[in-house]
Amino acid sequence: MDLQLFLAALLFALASSTTPGPNNLMLMASGANYGFRRTVPHMLGVGIGFSVMVLGVGLGLSLVFERYPLVEQVLTWASLAYLLWLAFKIATAAPPEDTPEARGRPFTFLQAAAFQWVNPKAWAMAMTATTAYAAGHRVGDVALVAGTFLLSSTISTTSWAALGVGAGQVLKGRKRLRAFNIVMAVLLVATLVPVLKY
Asked: How would you class 72 by CB atoms within 10 Å of its CB: exposed for 0-12, middle for 13-18, buried for 19 or more?
């Protein structure tokens, strides 16, 4: 991959990773509800999990979808159902109490990494990135594209979690935090609209 193509891949990774989507909205909600430190495993799971997904897609998983379109359709509908369930859980989450034991649990590293495989935006990003910037499916090119997403995720996950922490500081009251959770759930559902149009 030449320098110009690498820079284009990096810009694509930054732009697509930092725009609102299921990962970023969930990180913001986690930052608001659990704080930055407890959200770090979630952040790492997003970055590393998605980079592994890009590797898988770039090294041949995309060919499965080309050969068997039904697999992609089933995965899309399963993803939509899971995201609707997550939105419901966020909307109905009780605002945290004062004690850490009563505050619930944020996503773990493994949960966040596994979530990438049912995240419609992640699939679209991985397919687009590997098709545009690693079209030959060469291992080095695919690894470089995955690396650009790992780098960009450091910026995006940190920013969105920190934004959530800031929101949590402003939303001190239980009613305000409950309203925030409902707004986050509605926005999460709104991220599904492009998938439904597709």
From this structure: middle
